[in-house]
Known about the structure:
Elements: H1 6-11, H2 14-37, H3 45-67
Helix pairs in contact: 2-3
Amino acid sequence: MAKYKSKDLLTKTKDELKDRIQFLRKEQFNLRFQAVNGQIENPLRFRLIRREIAAIKTIINNNLMKVK
């Protein structure tokens, strides 16, 4: 999977972003099992997932602040 584009994340709704976080958390969980079993193909994917989750959370929090 390619790196996320911040412009794409900004155009999504809050529900879509929450769904994306849920998907990334599941993927992160599966990667942990692969790492334990020695089957992981791309260990750098951990970092990409973590950063994308952080970017999504930042966008959600900033959007909530604008609404108030």
